[in-house]
Design goal:
Layout: E1 2-8, E2 11-17, E3 24-27, H1 37-46, E4 51-57, H2 69-78, E5 82-88, H3 96-101, E6 106-110, H4 117-126, E7 130-135, E8 153-157, H5 172-186, E9 191-195, H6 203-209, E10 213-216, H7 218-221, H8 226-236
Length: 237
């Protein structure tokens, strides 16, 4: 999924394609140095990463609080990458339109947080965003069988959500295989994304199992040369 400039009577707009030619790298801004966020986003802009991953946490669904709407607005103003927004919040339906206004292009909600998932997914799509659904580590993939054809993205959490820097859960590779099989069975075009503990050691197995999008946080932003690390991660798969 890439932003491409297109002419419009109202000014300069972006059209979005959603068919990756290669693995997509989505650095997670949650792992950045918040005192240098503008510089960190500029680095991502220069890099070979295609997306910027933004984790929104409410302190209720997960035991942490991250970014609110003003920060989202600020990020959107300087980022040139696709805004991949992951909502780790209760009752996300209240905020779908707001996150669209804040620059979200891919909006992912949690299976565990939605009472009426089909309605939520289609509300996201009707607002002009790509719709994703995330699964916590304990949530089986087969629960998406009825909604899979409607999805643009499936996010498999490879750590328990809420905090960066956690250890990758090895069973995630098998869950990715299951999601890939379900995608084939249902005829879905959804991309498969993994978030949590991703690095150059586990990325090849994840991509071989069917991953399209790798979210990388500490592995990128805590490295001595983040831009080089992004290139190396792409080279590893």
């Amino acid at each position: 999924m890439n932003r491409k400039p297109s002419a419009d009577a109202g000014g300069f707009l972006f059209s979005i394609t959603f068919a990756p030619m290669s693995t997509i790298i989505a650095p997670s801004i949650l792992a950045s140095d918040f005192t240098r966020m503008g510089e960190e986003i500029s680095m991502v802009n220069r890099s070979r990463a295609q997306w910027l991953h933004v984790d929104v946490m409410d302190g209720v669904f997960v035991p942490n609080i991250s970014f609110g709407m003003p920060i989202m607005d600020a990020i959107a103003k300087v980022s040139t990458k696709t805004m991949d927004v992951h909502l780790m919040i209760v009752d996300p339906d209240r905020y779908l339109a707001t996150f669209k206004q804040c620059g979200a292009e891919v909006l992912t909600v949690h299976y565990e947080a939605c009472n009426h998932l089909h309605r939520t997914v289609h509300a996201i799509k009707e607002l002009g965003m790509k719709a994703g659904v995330a699964l916590n580590p304990h949530t089986p993939v087969h629960l998406l069988s009825d909604i899979m054809p409607d999805l643009d993205l499936v996010l498999i959490m490879s750590v328990n959500p809420g905090f960066g820097g956690q250890k990758f859960i090895p069973h995630t590779v098998e869950k990715v295989r299951q999601a890939s099989e379900l995608r084939s069975i249902t005829g879905s075009k959804a991309l498969i994304e993994v978030d949590g503990g991703v690095n150059a050691q586990n990325a090849p197995a994840l991509v071989a199992a069917g991953v399209d999008v790798l979210v990388a946080g500490n592995f990128v932003f805590r490295s001595s040369d983040p831009e080089r690390t992004i290139s190396d991660l792409l080279a590893s798969v």
